[in-house]
Every structure is written in structure tokens, then in C-alpha cells.
Design goal:
single chain; alpha+beta; Immunoglobulin-like; C8orf32 fold; Jelly Rolls; 3 domains; 8-stranded mixed β-sheet
Length: 670
């Protein structure tokens, strides 16, 4: 995707800036009265002002700390925008050191009886929690928020982890009227600034240096019997590398269909530490390779220790595999054993938070506990199993080698030709399948000897959705029919995710939704809980008003509710790549009996449409044999990722499908 520089400087925006007071607490009546965003009318909320400051504080007693100050003012336009009144601030802890999230102040502004009133965020509305051993969270919900409110808050994060600067966000899902960011880094830290390579927008940053003097008092004592104390005023001069950003009218992220994770395309600044060089100290190099990162995580984060622990489950696994000789059967038994015995607690991470032994006893754990346990059991059973480090979709794709580039772990069994990937945190995945959160380009497998390689995480095997409809009109011209559907692979997993355990009385309305005047009965589903097997579904239906009579001719769309009625790609252009969930083969076979007393006057024509040299193929085949009409419609998506340059071709490809599925047969009286 080509980047372009985004400059928005206008006389109007400058005039508005001069008139606007962004000082904390100086919210205007006009801001609260504003009904819609002046430029983005569809916006549910807008950031009126955001200030993000990062600097280092040197204290004689406590040493060096990294300080982040944030001030935000947000306008809530409607009910959908109320979620912006909920704020979560994340921090980090490691052993005895932790980020300090404090200095939280907030107010909500409303208009009551024509007057501007405010409501203060109280301390009892601020909550702290430890997500796990490493992540801290501070949460609050702004008080008295309603449609039209303006909320304003600020906070400070003081961190002892001076070698790690968090991303500085420059774009959000809602528009920003004014954003200011300032990052000041002492020359001791050799940081390299990165833009988000996936963002279509790059904002230029002003870079400069300035001299800074740190003054401190050094106390010294001399003498033996009579001690004298001297105070010496000293100073350290050093350079500050400054990064400054000020912009008006930043557009929101554009919501589009088939995006892997929208926030991955937001503009931001990311900071990579290359080296440190403190006064009177040698240069310490922080540059890494992915091989070095993987090895460091394996050795230093407990992975090596956990995957080699076997003395607490060995007897159970021996009993489990006692009557199984083939490797395929052993693999399936161990995988299902871990899935059924250990429940995922919804926490992610590549470390085993509880430790696999504790998780085994408790029956619950995070992703590290569960999948490292799976690796350990597979190794015990003789498989060449290893952990694979992953960055989830919401975590993004790392743009340089760093331990922070990964936040998840899965298991892999290495064969002569390939890798078999497994994730036992998801009850509905089969061997070789991953949950959607983990299907993010590639992961890093770490072998027992410390070597590592990249592993493809994207699904490559086609999942099938095969549907057959047998239909005919009764004497009252009501369409009577039966549907039979088979789902395998990730189509079956999606069905289980959405509908497993749903009672039939609750599932029938789901089936009838958006199918017109239909009545569905005799629903059967098999293999719903048999993970890895084909789901088979069938039901009978009556569809009224399925045809139109014009001048004694019947116009009937044979694809009925099985066809594609709307193109998912409607925009004139596309900003982001297109991601389909997995390779797929979707087929619909329609068998229709021509009613007595009628004959076919016209039929849709057969067609084959190719997308990008076989990346996708749509086939629409029509055959009439006496009174029997058969239509076979199939869509094969072989590639699942397309660039924005492919958008026009995809749009036309789907438009052809919609047109063919919308075509009618015409019947006349014989």
C-alpha cells in the first residue's frame, strides 16, 4: 500500500484553534451544545482535544523514571457514542517494580436549564485490578454521561521501565479535532521511531534537540571525631531529542467489511530501543534478531522449564494412551484430553501464569498454561512438539524484533513435511485449526535446542459449505421444499461457535430471519458436538410469496434465500486490505420441479467468473431436463488476503454473483 503525506492546514482550522481553549476545565457551552460533528456527520463521538506527553524525570532519591501524561476531551453525540465514557488505562508490573497510574481527574459537562454544569469523577468511581502477574489496569466510567455530554479527564503514568516507551496513538475510530503529542528523550537512550507501515496515513513529525541541565546536591562528610558535612551543588548537561506533533481535523478509521482488525491500520508512533549509553558507561546494544528474541523468551520466561515438566501427569497420560497404538489416535486423545480437562480463563499470554502443574490441578489457566501443557504432554508421548509464539490480531504484527511482539502461544507438532498447529484453549477447534484471534500471518516456533523458525498461521485448507434445496410449488403456489446442508472445517467451527447448545425453538427463528414469509419445521442437526466431524443439517420449509405473477406469467428467483442478494463491497475505493477468514468452497444446488400446466419461457444463462487468475472462481450452471430444473452455484475462494489494489476486481466479482443470483426464470402456461 502506498503511503502519502497527510497535510491538513486551513485558514478555518487555524481560526478555530485560536478561539478554542483546550486548558483542562475550560469546556465551552458551545462544545456541549454541538449536535453533530461538522465534517463527519455519522460520527457517534469525537475527540475534541488530546494531549500526549512523554518525558523522563530524574530524581536524586528515586532515580530515573518514564512519565506519560494524557489529557483528553471527548464529545458524545448519540447513544452509540456512550461507550467512550468508559476508560481503561493499562500499566505493567514485574516483580517489585510496577507502573504508577495516578493523578486522575475528570469531569462530565452537560447543559441543564440552559446553564453549563459539571459532575466530578469521584475516587470511588476509579477501580484498579491486576489482570495477571504483569498487567495492571485502572478503569473508570465518567459520571452523568448522556447524549450530548462532553467528558474530560487526565492522568499520569510514572514507570520504572525506562527502556520501553508505549505507542503514541495518532488516529482513532472517531474523528479528532485537535491532537498534540510531545516526546522528549534524553540522549542516553537511542530510540528509533517507527510509523505504522499498515496505515495509509503518515503524519510528518517535527524533530529537534535542546540542551537540558539537571542540578542536584551531593552531600559529603569528612573528619573522624569531629564530622563536618559539606553540600556541593553539581549539574549534568545532556541533550534532549524532541519529537513534536500538532494537527487539526484527523479523520477517523474507516470501518469496512472484511478487515482483520481495524486498529491495526491506525496511525501511531512506535519506539524501538537500539542502545543505551549513560555517562561514564559503555554502550549497551539492545538491537535483536528474531532468533535472539525467541531464544530469550524460551529461556527467560519459563517456557523451557514448563514444557519439560511431566512428573505430575505421566500416570494419567499412560492410562489415557494404554490402548492406543497409532500416532494419529494418540495425538487426538492428548489434544482432546487437554481441551476437556483445562478451561481457558480468558487471559492471554505466552507465559504460564499459574504454572502448568497448578493449572492441571485447578482445571483452569491462561493460554500459556494450557498450550504449554499440551506441548509437554505431546513430548512425553514421543511427538516432536514445540511452542509457537504468536501475536494475536488485536496485538498487531510486530515491525521489528522485540519480546513485546508476541502475546500468545500455541502448540505445534513437526512432521517431515509440515507443522500441525493446535490451540487447546478453544473447545470448538479441531487438530490443525486455530481460533480466529490466533490466525495472524505467522508465528515463531521454538525448538528444544533453542533454534527457531517462522510458521505460517493462516489457514490453507478449504472449508466446505455444501447446500442442496429440493423445491416445488403446491396447488396454492406456496413453495414447498427441503434443505440439506453439510459443513466441515472452519465453517463447522463457526456454526458451533454461534449455535452450539441453542435449543431448537430458539434456533428456528434464527433460520427464518431474512428469508421472507417462511415457515421452517423438522429441523435436524447431527455431529453438532463432534469436533472435527462434518455437521449435517436439514429442515423442511414453506415459503409464501416466492414468485410474482405478471400478465399470467410466473417470475421466480430459483436461488430463493440461498443466493447472495447484496454486494458487501459498495464503496468507491478501499483503504485497507481485504481479509476473508479462511479458504472456502461454498456450493448451492437447487433442484426445482416445474409446476404442472407450466413450461419454461426463459432461464438465466450459465456463467463462469474468474477472480485474479484463479484466486477466486464463481460458477453458475443452469440445466433443464424436462420438468426438472437444476442450478449449481459455487464460489471457491482460494486466496483469503487481497490488497486494496484488488478492490475494484473484487467488487465487480461479487457484483456478478449478485446479478446471477437475482435472475428469475419465467414460466408460462402450457
Amino acid at each position: 500500500m502506498k503511503h502519502f503525506y497527510f497535510f491538513i492546514i486551513s485558514v478555518l482550522s487555524v481560526c478555530l484553534l485560536q478561539a478554542q481553549n483546550y486548558k483542562f476545565g475550560k469546556v465551552s457551552k458551545e462544545e456541549v451544545l454541538e449536535k453533530v460533528h461538522p465534517k463527519y456527520k455519522e460520527a457517534n463521538a469525537a475527540i475534541l482535544f488530546r494531549e500526549h506527553r512523554v518525558y523522563y524525570d530524574l530524581n536524586q532519591n528515586t532515580g530515573l523514571s518514564l512519565v506519560t501524561e494524557v489529557h483528553e476531551r471527548i464529545k458524545i453525540y448519540n447513544k452509540e457514542g456512550l461507550k467512550w465514557a468508559n476508560k481503561t488505562i493499562s500499566g505493567y508490573q514485574n516483580g517489585t517494580e510496577r507502573d504508577d497510574i495516578g493523578n486522575i481527574k475528570g469531569y462530565t459537562y452537560n447543559i441543564e436549564d440552559g446553564k453549563l454544569v459539571d459532575e466530578k469523577l469521584r475516587n470511588n468511581g476509579i477501580f484498579n485490578e491486576e489482570t495477571n502477574k504483569y498487567i495492571l489496569k485502572t478503569k473508570f466510567t465518567m459520571p452523568a454521561v448522556t447524549e450530548g455530554s462532553v467528558i474530560e479527564y487526565k492522568y499520569t503514568i510514572t514507570s520504572p521501565f525506562t527502556t520501553s516507551i508505549d505507542d503514541v496513538p495518532l488516529q482513532f475510530e472517531i474523528p479528532v479535532k485537535r491532537l498534540e503529542a510531545e516526546i522528549k528523550i534524553p540522549e542516553f537512550f537511542g530510540f528509533r521511531m517507527h510509523y505504522n507501515p499498515k496505515s495509509p496515513i503518515i503524519f510528518p513529525i517535527n524533530k529537534s534537540t535542546e540542551t537540558f541541565t539537571y542540578r542536584y546536591t551531593q552531600k559529603s562528610r569528612t573528619g573522624q571525631r569531629v564530622v563536618s558535612t559539606d553540600y556541593d551543588q553539581r549539574s549534568i548537561d545532556y541533550l534532549l531529542n524532541n519529537y513534536d506533533f500538532k494537527r487539526n481535523d484527523i479523520p477517523p478509521l474507516k470501518k469496512e467489511m472484511y478487515v482483520d482488525y481495524l486498529q491495526n491500520y491506525a496511525a501511531y508512533l512506535r519506539w524501538e530501543l537500539k542502545y543505551t549509553q549513560f555517562p561514564d558507561s559503555p554502550v549497551e546494544n539492545y538491537s535483536r534478531t528474531w532468533e535472539g528474541v525467541a531464544k530469550s523468551i524460551y529461556n527467560d520466561s519459563g517456557l523451557k522449564q514448563e514444557v519439560n515438566r511431566t512428573n505430575f501427569f505421566d500416570k494419567d497420560i499412560d492410562k489415557l494412551l494404554s490402548d492406543t497404538k497409532d500416532r494419529t489416535g494418540k495425538l487426538a486423545k492428548i489434544f482432546n484430553y487437554v481441551k476437556n480437562k483445562i478451561t481457558w480463563n480468558d487471559f492471554i499470554g505466552f507465559r504460564a501464569e499459574s504454572g502448568i502443574k497448578s493449572a492441571y490441578i485447578k482445571g483452569a489457566g491462561n493460554t500459556g498454561d494450557i498450550n504449554l501443557m499440551l506441548v509437554s504432554m505431546l513430548r512425553y508421548a514421543g511427538f516432536e512438539a514445540n511452542p509457537v509464539l504468536v501475536s494475536t490480531k488485536s496485538h498487531g504484527i510486530p515491525i521489528y524484533p522485540t519480546r513485546n511482539g508476541f502475546n500468545y502461544v500455541i502448540a505445534a507438532v513437526e512432521t517431515q513435511d509440515d507443522f500441525v498447529l493446535m490451540d487447546a484453549t478453544d473447545k470448538n477447534v479441531a487438530i490443525g485449526e486455530l481460533p480466529n484471534r490466533a490466525m495472524n500471518w505467522r508465528g515463531r516456533i521454538i525448538r528444544e535446542d533453542g533454534t527457531s523458525d517462522w510458521v505460517n498461521l493462516m489457514p490453507t485448507v478449504k472449508s466446505e459449505n455444501i447446500t442442496m434445496l429440493n423445491m416445488q410449488f403446491d396447488d396454492d403456489m406456496v413453495l414447498q421444499g427441503k434443505l440439506v446442508r453439510k459443513l466441515n472445517g472452519l465453517h463447522a467451527k463457526k456454526f458451533r461457535d454461534d449455535y452450539a447448545g441453542l435449543a431448537k425453538k430458539d434456533y428456528i427463528p434464527v433460520l427464518e430471519k431474512n428469508k421472507g414469509n417462511i415457515e421452517i419445521s423438522d429441523v435436524t442437526i447431527s455431529n453438532e458436538k463432534a469436533i472435527g466431524k462434518i455437521i449435517k443439517q436439514s429442515y423442511n420449509f414453506e415459503l409464501k410469496n416466492a414468485m410474482e405473477i405478471i400478465n399470467e406469467k410466473i417470475y421466480f428467483k430459483p436461488m430463493v434465500f440461498a443466493g447472495l442478494t447484496e454486494n458487501p463491497f459498495k464503496g468507491k475505493e478501499r483503504n485497507y486490505p481485504i481479509f476473508f477468514d479462511f479458504p472456502s468452497s461454498d456450493s448451492n444446488t437447487i433442484n426445482f420441479l416445474i409446476p404442472e400446466g407450466y413450461e419454461v419461457e426463459s432461464l438465466p444463462e450459465s456463467a463462469i467468473v474468474d477472480l485474479k487468475n484463479g484466486a477466486g472462481v464463481f460458477k453458475f450452471v443452469v440445466a433443464l431436463n424436462g420438468k426438472f430444473l437444476r442450478i449449481e452455484s459455487s464460489l471457491d475462494l482460494n486466496n483469503i488476503v487481497y490488497s486494496s489494489l484488488d478492490y475494484e476486481g473484487l467488487k465487480n466479482f461479487y457484483s456478478e454473483m449478485v446479478n446471477k443470483h437475482s435472475e428469475a426464470i419465467v414460466l408460462t402456461k402450457s
